[in-house]
Amino acid sequence: MKFFIDTANVDEIREAASLGVLDGVTTNPTLLGREIERTHRRPEDILREICEIVNGPVSAEGVSLDAEGIVKEGKELAKIHKNICIKVPMTPDGMKAIRKFRSLGITTNTTLVFSCNQALIAAKAGTNYLSPFIGRLDDAGHSGMELVDQILTMLENYEFDSQLIVASIRHPLHVVEASLIGAHICTIPFKVIKLMFKHPLTDQGIKRFLEDWERAKKFKK
Ligand code: G3P
């Protein structure tokens, strides 16, 4: 499974990248807006820095809703770095834009996917990645992971090339479940990545090894 980080915070991205397990980054207008507020930097500078930190796809999203506008904004974003992948909303105009991006050789990530039919349309349109938002589905009383399972079956049935990114992850169990059903990618908030490292028995084990070693040192010649 590939790990992407779901943030535009360059400090978090740098730290996660230093762990050696990061394959890509996803941002959205909310996340990029938060980073602009935090650093007072231009969005293109933030995205360029992210691309320099992580050698993998970096999803960036515009705010246009019509196909022409999505393509125009996407082309500008794609100029920032070769690894920029354009997030496209799961709408009829978004799907029209995907066809255009394909002809231009620009990669796409269909965002805000909440049903198997939407994923089927995005796969047929030729999206490179598609992102079901599982936490938001769970919040609404539906099973996000059931949707991931359905989409994976659908992609396999017809041998689509689109890769599924499990998005809107809220806790480590989401990642466990996604890995057990064979999701291609999880995009994970930094705080969840940190939690995935933790186990109280690991901490206890380290503490005990150090205490035992300290005790043994007294007997050293
Ligand atoms: O990648 C999608 C993600 O940023 C949405 O997460 O927590 O706003 O539902 P959330």
Q: Could you name the key traits of this structure?
A:
globular; alpha/beta; TIM Barrel; single chain; 221 residues; 56% helix
Give a verbal description of the structure.
By secondary structure, the chain is of the alpha/beta class. It has one domain (2-217): TIM Barrel, CATH 3.20.20.70. Helix content is 56%, strand content 16%. The protein has helices at 10-18, 29-39, 43-53, 67-80, 92-104, 116-125, 134-139, 144-157, 172-180, 190-197, 200-217; strands at residues 2-6, 24-26, 58-61, 84-89, 108-113, 129-132, 163-166, 185-188. An eight-stranded parallel barrel has the order 1-2-3-4-5-6-7-8, surrounded by six helices. The protein is globular. SN-glycerol-3-phosphate is lined by residues 6, 26, 28, 133, 135-136, 167-168, 187.
